[in-house]
Design a protein that fits this description.
InterPro entries: DNA_Rep/Repair_Clamp_Loader, P-loop_NTPase. This protein has 286 residues and is of the alpha/beta class. It has 2 domains: 145 residues, Rossmann fold; 129 residues, no CATH class. Helices cover 55% and strands 9% of the residues. A 5-stranded parallel beta sheet has the order 2-3-4-1-5, with helices on both faces. Helix 4 links the parallel strand 3 and strand 4. Helix 7 packs across helix 8 and helix 8 crosses helix 10. The longest helix is centred in the last third of the chain and has 30 residues. It is elongated, with a radius of gyration of 21 Å.
């Protein structure tokens, strides 16, 4: 595992003593490594065939109430099956583990469906959920989770995490600075660096220019460059969004980042209307 050594040791003791709870909610800022931690914790406890990941990130902004309920039912069906392979040592139980990724997107209806499982969890079942905030859950649901807050990591720990990637030291330092303690974001940049180094470099450069541009002329030139980058590399626009997100105050520029993220996620072609909208957003960054 990476980082969070104290938390790792706490869970190692719980595993060794057979004192694991049936439900944990790992919460904290986006891309700090909550899902990575939950996934590797699950791998310590159960066989891969006894681990299910239910990802709700794709449901962001969805109006389909039934989708979340269907996924919760899938989770329920999985948990109530007998573990197919015992990973634990003699005298310790085997488990089936369901990881709920980005649980903040569960609708109230889906949360109520989940509550029925939380009230009477199967003996061999464990739920590891991740979310950006614990307070977005219904009180009855929140109260049934063991809450685990995951803070932003020190820069040194992010650099330690990046040692597993074959990239130059100066790029590691730049990635660590841009990631701002979020190891999930650092991984995105590192993997992009391995396969798309020039695109990542361009995205990072443009993000810096967008922030530093002060005059009207500079803003226009930078906006034009960014639009051109989006046109030429539509599949790499996320790199620009991630770079920009790592450099801006997330509270001060929350609305701008949200709109840019939604734009990048849905990007197929850059129309004239989209050009105008992006430029307006970028001009608000100061």
């Amino acid at each position: 595992m990476f980082g969070y050594e104290s938390l790792q040791k706490d869970f190692d003791r719980l595993i060794e003593g057979g004192n694991l709870s049936h439900t944990y909610l790992f919460y904290g800022e986006p891309q700090i490594g909550k899902f990575l931690f939950a996934r590797e914790l699950a791998a310590k406890i159960a066989h891969p065939s006894d681990i299910l990941t239910v990802d709700f990130s794709a449901e962001e902004g969805s109006d389909k109430e039934s989708v979340g309920i269907e996924k919760v039912r899938e989770l329920e069906h999985f948990l109530y099956q007998t573990p197919s392979s015992a990973k634990a040592t003699e005298g310790k139980p085997s488990y089936r583990i369901a990881i709920i990724r980005d649980a903040q997107w569960l609708t109230d209806q889906a949360q109520n469906a989940l509550l029925k499982i939380l009230e009477e969890p199967p003996k061999s079942g464990i739920i590891l959920a991740t979310a950006t905030d614990s307070d977005i859950f219904l009180p009855a649901v929140r109260s049934r989770f063991q809450l685990v807050f995951m803070p932003i990591l020190p820069r040194e720990e992010v650099l330690d995490f990046l040692d597993q990637y074959d990239i130059m030291q100066d790029r590691k330092l730049e990635i660590a600075d841009t990631a701002r303690g979020r190891v999930g974001r650092a991984r995105t940049f590192a993997e992009a660096q391995n396969g798309q180094g020039s695109a990542l470099h361009t995205a990072t450069k443009l993000a810096k220019q967008a922030i530093r541009a002060s005059s009207t002329t500079n803003k226009k030139n930078v906006s034009d460059e960014i639009i051109e980058f989006f046109n030429e590399h539509p599949h790499n626009t996320e790199l620009f969004i991630e770079s920009l997100a790592g450099m801006l105050d997330p509270k001060k520029h929350a609305s701008v980042l949200k709109e840019l993220s939604e734009f990048a996620y849905n990007l197929q072609t850059v129309t004239i209307q989209k050009r105008i909208h992006i430029k307006k957003l970028l001009w608000t960054i100061q």
